[in-house]
Amino acid sequence: MTVKGRDVRIRTIGIAALAVLAIWFIAANTASVAIRLWVPTVTLPLWAVLTVTLAVGLVMGWFIARRRARR
């Protein structure tokens, strides 16, 4: 598939679509939530919790993909 003369893989389009959906989902959830971290309970906006969760997931996925690529 080409866009403006450049080859674009279906994987790239899928990743872009998932990124847009993730950003929309995070932006739509703005209420505050209480999160229990073993002992303390912290109250944060849900968008912040979702953003941190997304970032941790992306970093973990990147490390796993990098490790598999080295094998």
UniProtKB/TrEMBL annotation:
Organism annotation: Streptomyces lunaelactis
Top-level lineage group: Bacteria
Protein name per UniProt: DUF1049 domain-containing protein
Alphabetical UniProt keywords: Membrane, Transmembrane, Transmembrane helix
Membrane-spanning parts: 12-38, 44-65
